Structure formats: C-alpha cells, structure tokens
Amino acid sequence: MGSLGFWRLAQADPEWVAAVDPDGTEHTAGDLLARANRLVHGLRGLGLTKGDGICGLVPNGSEGLVLYLAALQAGWYYTPINWHLTGPEIGYIVADSEARAFFVHERHGAEGARAARESGIERHRCFAFGEVEGFRPYGELVDDQPATLPDDRSNGATMHYTSGTTGRPKGVRRRLAGIDPDDSAELMTFLLAMFGIPPGRPAGNEPQAHLVTSPNYHTAVTQFGGTALQMGHTLVYVDRWDAEECLRLIQDYRITNTHMVPTHFKRLLSLPDEVRKRYDVSSMRWAIHAAAPCPVPIKQRMLDWWGDCVWEYYAATEGGGTIASPQDWRAHPGTVGKAWPISELLIVDDEGDEVPAGSPGTIYMKMAGTEFEYKGDREKTEKNRLKDHFTVGDIGYLTEDGFLFLSDRKADMIISGGANIYPAEIENEIVLHPKVADVAVFGIPDDEWGEQIKAVVEPAAGVDPGPELAAEILASLEGRLAKMKWPKTIDFIATMPREPNGKLLKRKLRDPYWKDRDSAI
C-alpha cells in the first residue's frame, strides 16, 4: 500500500498541524501520535486485548481524537457516546458495549458519574479529563507511558450506537480484518475519494482542511473527519455550531471540505446579506451534506452562493449508499444520487418484491466487502435484511437511470383517509417561508380519518407566533401542495428538538398527542 494513513504521515511529518481545538489550540501530528501511543501502552497495562472496547463521553476536540486513534491502531472498538443522553442511557451503552475503559470529560461529569454507577464498570477503568466524581485522572493512565509506537498493531474500528426508532439503541459492530492500521486507513480513504477529494499530504499536494461541524458521536462526522485526517487533512473542530462563526472558520483556516446537514444551510442562508458578503468562502471545494432531505430551493440557493461544491449522499451507519455530484443534482433536482460503486440499491413493496422504476417502496442497500451485526441482537439484524440487503426503514424510488429520490421514513408516514402522506414533502414547502426557522410535520389521532396532519413551527427570530402566522403559512401552500396535504393545525415551539447533526427528534413532538391511545400508528 502507499503512503496514506495517519501514523505513516505523522512519522514522516510530525510538525503538520493535524487538529485545531474549538478554542483555537493547535495540535501537531507528532503530538497526537505520541498521546495515542501512550494511551495504547496504558490500556494494555490495564489488560485490554484485541477486540475489546472503550467508550468516550467527550466534547469535540483532541481528547476524543486520541481515543479514536488509539483504538484504531490497537485492534479495539471505540464507541463515542452522545452527550445529550442521561446517566442511565449512557450507562446502558457502556454496559452493552462491554467497555473495558470509560473516559469522561468534566463537562459531562455529572451524567458520566451516574453512567459509571449504572453500568457496573469497575472504578479503576474510569478516567476523567478534568475532575469527575469517583474517576481516576487521565494522567494516571498515560503520564508514565512511553511515546513509542506500540508493537503488534492491528486495525480497530468505531462501534456507533444507532438511535433507532424503537427500543434501546444498538451498536453496529463490524468484523475486524486484523491488518496494519495504516493499510486499513488507506482502504477507508475510498469514502472521500468518491467525491474526488485528494490527500493533503505528502509534499506536493495542496494543503486540505476539514471543518468538523457536528458532534463526533455521529457516525458520518467520525467517518468523514477520521478519513480526512488519514489523508493528511487538518481537522478544525467546532464546539457549538454558529452560522457566522462557520463562515469565519472557512475563511481563516482556508477550509476545503466539510460535512453538513440541511439545517446548517437554512441557518447560513438566513444570515443578512452584508454578513454573508463579509467572508471569503472560495476555498470550499466539497460541502458534503446528508442526514435529512434538503428542500430543492434551499440547495439551489447554496449552489448559487457557494458554486458547484455542494455534494450530497445518502447512507446509513450499517453501510452502503448513494452520491450526487452538483452536476447530477442540477440535472435531477432533489435526487440523493446514484449507488456508490461498491453499493447496490433495491426498492421493494411490503411483500418484499422489487417495484418498477418510479414507484415508491422501502429502500434496501448492501455494500460489498462489509458485514455488520447489531451487537447482541441477531433477531434485529435478521429482521432488517432481505437476502444480503438491509434497510433502515426509509421510503423512496429509483428513476430509470438509477437516481434515488427519498420520500420519507416509513415510521413517519401519515395514513389519513387511507392515503399515504409523506411529512417531508410538506416540511420542505413550509420551511421555505421566510418567517419559519424550522418545522416538523407528523400525524396525530383523528377518529374519522385515522390521522390528521399536524405542523409544529419554530418561528424565525423576531417573529410572533399565533393564529395570524399560522394562516399566513397555510396560505403560502396554495397552488404548491394539494389541500389534502395541508396541516389541519399548526402549533408553535420556541426551539425545535434536533440533535446537533440535524436529526429531528420527531417522537418527542408526536408522543404527547398519542399518549392516551392504545397504539401510535
């Protein structure tokens, strides 16, 4: 194999600035390499062997990056945990993943300490960045360890927990190949190579910088940022995403690639013109987005502003997906693209039979050369499969020439008067209203129709919620959306419950309306 992979690159060029923390602190590749090596030696001293797992409850930045790099070169599974969860929810993941070490940043110390008690993990395996009740200082594990490259290195992996629409989250676990970590990293680079993104090292390549816009506990954020690092790009972390700050970072660090979600686009486009014109974003070559359907006019405005650098893909933690170049999207507005070269798509009806082009059905995918299971849940793994394809429950259709269009999640579909109604289609129209910052559409009980359509709107800054705004929003749908798809009622909310990766926590909004019913459709 060639010369890619963080460990090779760090040894060849230890002074390369590999990561920038949210507070602006720069970390060289040599520094990160030494820290990751010390951690491997320290955890081996605790008895960790290949195939074991570690968990991290840490904010974006170099601490989590070191946990990731250590696991990836020692043959371990690293599970970054969502810091919005409560202690018992975190404790469940620590226990379920069979973590043999648990790392917590003091910012999340209260819930981290609860999680440790809940999970039953031995206290000498709990380490804190800063001070966390009952945890050992991180320095105790690493300070006396050598910075030398450990021997007997082999590739590890992340094991992310999917939030899932029902029940407890499940860890998506892949079999480890037992190969050299740098060779494994080089194989990972196919992800960015599909978008045409080049290495940022060794010498002779133009420097590349990747902006990490969302929390690292999300699969895509880890994959894109991790792969960029393995290609020699500088990672620039944000702590909390802010539209103007995003533009400043792109300008100051000459960011060339990033991973975003449509909510980011909406917030960027909502900035006043004079603010947008203040920043030079011409360095951006690949603004890659996913996680939620992007309304066609919003994407069009981003392309008009940033030029042909806005790429889209559709994928799942479990593997496989599609990709849409700016040119593909201009030719097929609204598409999420065609299958990756190593992936296949299958659209089927409720009986599992393939449907013709243009007909919506459940989307199944597969990716060559990768197998996964939901850890400890063979039944769920098998239930979501069709032969060697799997589904996450999304609905969509394929065109004759293989372009995929998403309709919605099966779980979010509204059945009203026997008709299937896709909330995403309604949301995409309402969000275009200038007085709307965010919107969620879902079904609520209706004795006559089964379900009626409810919209919950977060008004734009300075806009008063109320019946007048509701009437104005509904009037804007005239001629754009069939009346049967109009929300029956609109409620208002100060802040929409979204995860920082843009994923809408629709269940939080929907559940109160269904609490007195025997079943939620």
TrEMBL record:
Domain AMP-binding enzyme C-terminal: 425-503
EC number(s) per entry: 6.2.1.3
GO molecular function: long-chain fatty acid-CoA ligase activity; medium-chain fatty acid-CoA ligase activity
Pfam families the UniProt entry points to: AMP-binding, AMP-binding_C
Keyword list, A-Z: Ligase
Top-level division of the source organism's lineage: Bacteria
InterPro entries: AMP-bd_C, AMP-bd_C_sf, AMP-binding_CS, AMP-dep_synth/lig_dom, ANL_N_sf
Matching PROSITE patterns: AMP_BINDING (PS00455)
Region Disordered: start-end pairs: 144-174
Top enzyme category: ligase
Biased composition (Polar residues): 155-166
Domain (AMP-dependent synthetase/ligase): residue spans on this chain: 7-368
Family, per entry: Belongs to the ATP-dependent AMP-binding enzyme family.
Protein name: Long-chain acyl-CoA synthetase
Organism, as annotated: Actinomadura namibiensis
